[in-house]
Structures are given as structure tokens and as C-alpha cells.
Amino acid sequence: MYTTFSVETGVSIPSITYTCKRHVTGVMVQAMPAQERFAPDAPFRFVGGDPSLDFVNTADWTRRGLESDRFTSYDRLIEWARGAGLVRQSHVRRLRRAAARHPRQAAAALAAARDVRDVLMAVFAAAVARRHSALALDRLNTLFTDAAAHMRVVRDPRGGLQRGWAGLGDAPESILWPVVARAVDLLASPDARKLRMCAGRDCGWLYVDRSRNRLRRWCDMSVCGTAEKNRRRVRR
Ligand SMILES: [Zn+2]
Questions:
Q1: CB neighbours of 68 closer than 8 A, spacing ≥ 6?
Q2: What is the per-residue pLDDT across 179-202, written as a single tens digit (0 to 9) for each?
Q3: Distance, CA 61 to ligand 1 centroid (Å)?
Q4: Least crowded by CB within 10 Å, which of 166, 168, 177, 181?
């Protein structure tokens, strides 16, 4: 899927680099080893400005493929969803119980999460490039149809109404419904025109550029922006 999205959309993925993004600490970036495929202990970062973007940003998108994938277990997926504010603590408890009761379903949900991440990257990368991909949209629509079947309008605590979910937390894969719904919300919103991909090497993270002058270049200035500055310093 990774190859598909880059070929299909023509989006230029940050070029191959010799640096280790999470461990760039100084000017000796060229001596750093390549990143690992999985990063079970790496913290989740919520810098994209939307949970669906932060979901894609749970791995680094390099030309070598995905690296530093933080989705290393179903429990990590729950941890991410809680951190992103997509599920409440009561859902977390139910999801953990469901995963313990149905370990194979939990493993399948983790695999599905990686597939959803691929699809979302394909659609978002196409949106960044303003070249929508029919194949990626078809796949997103399939996911959205499944998620929307569980969508409900429910009362909120302030006496109004809000979107809710029937059965969120009952089955391990239900954790993906709000992710897909938020992605569709974002793509159909004015913020879709502000979607950007980080200019940092070996990154590929996505964000909504809500800066006043629309000149944000990095997923996070303290990570990719600093790495780029260090790289320039090395070249001088
Ligand atoms: Zn970045």
C-alpha cells in the first residue's frame, strides 16, 4: 500500500535519509543508524491538529517503507485512542476486556488498524497534492460504510445532541470507527485545504497548517525543524 500511494498520488515522500529522527540530538546526524521498523516504547505524539492525522503519524513514512511503527500491540492502539481523545476511560476498560476475551479479534483489529492507516495516508497524501485517488477513496468509503453503520445521534451531558456510537468498546475493531469518521469529517471540511506533509527528511507526518501565514513546514519544529537546521549546519 505504501508503494501504491506514492506512485498513485505522485506525492513526494521525504527523501531517504541517514538520520534517526527520534534521536537527532546534535550535528552528528550522519553517523546515526537507520530507524527501526517498530518502536514499542516511543511515545505517541499529537501534533497533526486532528486525531485522524495523528493516527497516520504513528509511524514514519520513508521511501524504505514504514519505520518506527508505534502500533506494536493492541494495547498500544487503545493507549493511542485514549491519548487522542477518541475513547473515554469506560471504553478503554471495555476494549481491554474484549481483547482479553477475543485475542484473535484483537490481533486482527491491530492488523486492520495498520490497513486503515495505509488507506488514510493514501487519501490524505492525495489531498495534500490536490489529486484525489479513486482507489484510495473507494477503500475509505468501504471503511466509512462499516463505521457509519454504528453511528448514532445521542444526548450529550449538556442537554443537546452529539454523535455517538452503538457498541463502541464491545468488539476490538470498534476502536477504528471514530478514527475513520474523523478522517471523513476532516476531508469534507475547509481544513482539508490546509493539509500538509512535513518537509522533514524521513518523516512523512501530516498536519493541518492553521498558522496565520500558512507557512508551517514541520510536523514539529523541535523534531524535524531542528534536524533540518542541524543538517544545514553540517553542510556549511
Ligand atoms: Zn516531521
A1: 21, 22, 35, 36, 37, 38, 39, 42, 59, 60
A2: 999 999 999 999 999 999 999 999
A3: 10
A4: 166
